[in-house]
Amino acid sequence: MATPVVSTDLQDSFTATSEQVENSPSKNITDASDFWINAYQDPVAGIKTSSSCMALEDLNGDGENKLIIADVGTTPFDMRLKVYKGTSLLANMQLINLPSGLCTFFVDTNEPMTPAIAVASGPYVYVYKNLRPYFKFTLPSLDINPTEAQYWKQAKEEKLELLSFREMLEELQATDTEIPLTSRSLKLLQCLPEELEVFFNMYKHSPLKRQTVITCIDTIKKTHNEEKAISCIVIGSEHREIFILDPEAFTALARVYLPSVPVLLYTTGVYEVDYKVYVSCRDGNIYLVKGGSKIAKICIQTGSHAVGIEKQGKNILVGAMDDSLSCYTSRGKKLWTIQLPSSITTMEAIEIKSKGIKGVILGLKSGEIRLYRDKLLVNKLMLPEFAIGMKFGRFGREDSTLVLITGSGKLSIKMLKRTANLETRIVGDTLKSITPGKLNLPKKTKLYTEQAIRERENSIPIFQTFHRDLELIKLYITREYAKAIGSRLAPISVTTENIKLSAQVQGLGPGFKLSVSVQNASNIAVTGLLITFIYNPTIYGMTINAIPIPFLVPSINYTYEATVECLSDTGVTEAIRVVITKDSVSIPLLTALITMPVSLGMLIV
Amino acid sequence: MAGLERSRSTRPGLLNRLATFLGIKKKEAQILFVGLDNSGKSTLINFLKPDSYKRQEVVPTIGYSVEQFTAGRISFTVFDMSGQGKSRPLWEHYYRDAHAVVFVLDSTDRLRMEVAREELNNLLLHADVSTRKVPILFLANKMDCKDALGPIQVSVDMCLHEINLHSWHICATNAVTGEGVEEGILWLTEQIKHRL
Ligand SMILES: Nc1nc2c(ncn2[C@@H]2O[C@H](COP(=O)(O)OP(=O)(O)OP(=O)(O)O)[C@@H](O)[C@H]2O)c(=O)[nH]1
Ligand SMILES: [Mg+2]
Where does GTP bind (chain B) (predicted)? Predict the structure, then answer.
């Protein structure tokens, strides 16, 4: 029944007329650039926001998704929470603080099920239900620098002159970095001298507080993963902490410290089962906070700063400030990178369930909107100006709607055509600098590459260690050399009397014969030399302890002999030192150590 | 088949009158109801049905549903298509056999007027429609709602003046009370009578 049966009589009854040709079927082919229906545009919407401050959600449970925007406002102190139902503004509420993020979630299962809106703003999370304020969560305040508190106290008691008070604060700010100053003190430091008094009098009576601010917000399902299941709020704060809040009691279920300030969150999983929070931090790294773990582990080193994180299947897509879109495995290994022609202003995930399509949309500084499926560019769209905020999802009753906020505050709503083909890559899109995926490397090659990578990554410490060792060796050698020279241990003297000395031991013991040969290597004769033997008298005994050499003719080898008696019968040996001295000079010219052999004769007898 | 529904009626209703107008006997007239989801197609058909077959509550159609009425000796087959995005590709399979098309528009849904126009374009460009003359009745439904666009505005937004092959007509309706429906059905009757 679903397929039309060709019935000839019906065809006859609707015989085509000549006018039919007017709409030729060739028009049926959709233009690749023409994927989007321009549903609505408000050039004067005057909205200033970011993708993290936008949401699409069925707030009233009437099957129609609303657009929720936390608007920073085009003028100062004009922050607003705006809710669009279709093209009309359903709500426009004042916000007290600058919003940093927004999300929608279910706080309870009471019928009718309506989701709440959470707006992160300053140190607070404002929760709205049915478009009315419902709850306000405040981040716990931080410790105050005691010196700062004391200064304020003294100034209040008028023990301190205002100007010197300011100077002291300034000094404190410059010296003590352990606990930063409160925002009030910082504000006071910014005051002009004439404004100082007014400012001080306005705040002096209220207690001093140091508060952190929320930098990012997201949600995570609490007990089970269903579309309308209760969710916990996940927030990241300026003082490097991640909080997971209970949706009913609004107490912190988990707190995890990070090595840097979190700026972007991406959550998966269920809080009570297993969850993962990917946190992009200001140090350019993406950390992973896992369920049950109290510490954040480094997952991805982007080498830049992430503009957006999205998980696609098992991989993580990161749009970064170095104009690149990269794909990493969940272990942080980079699979590929695409270099973009312009910097990314905003990034948003797309999922079209009916077609089984997943991908990301990137808003570029050039005004281009690019749609990537994996690393394939499947659609490009050119806007007159760049997008600052972007949301893709169901709006009104239409799935696959793209809500765009551009730099000048324009709101534009585009809907993906049902006939849009997102299966093929755009012609002319070249895949630039794609690092190949996983190759099956032989073990040795792998070892080599790992080693090479390690050397590349740690080149500085490796060089430093090598250099240090080299210097140590040099130092050791120099020291030994200096010692040798200092005690004239070298076999050739280095003074003006150039004398060579060599000594030999002959015999098996207990009687030994020492023959010492001395040669004058210079061409002038040397006079008044004395050969002295230094030995341990408990082991050895000698008939002569010194041999005088009155005259040494150049280049003739003189040999002197002396007998040594080994007195010990235990077989111990000790070296005998031969020293050559000249007349009254106290430093020896040369020294030689004669290693004595074990007295064998004694053992034989 | 999912959503298939048949109801036979011998009671005189509005469609019965339509049959009398047509003056056709033992013939079948197929009317295709299309339009985006939530526009009020099922509510309209429910209104057209003889009283005893009226349903208390209209739920979103899944896939499509077929209503068959025997008015006098004429059988009417009305195809009520689901307007949901994923079901819209189904519509084109029913163009070939349709004697007339009723395109229902939610005149309060400004956001999706362009989507409706896109779907109308797809319909007009389809080979089974572009090669023959099919009367198209546009119903700017939900006229009772305070933020509803008027039929003139709807026809401008939908660029209806660009249709020159087919005869078309637009009128504002309230599918719940039936207000304005009669005018449209009368126009449709005239058109089909001409063509059959
Ligand atoms: N106020 C008002 N409500 C209407 C009118 N027509 C339909 N509705 C309501 O609109 C809703 C949707 O009507 P349906 O008839 O189910 O719409 P449909 O076009 O069949 O939708 P799908 O089957 O999903 O394609 C229902 O809640 C109707 O009560 C009308 O003229 N005025
Ligand atoms: Mg229906």
Answer: 35-42, 83, 141-144
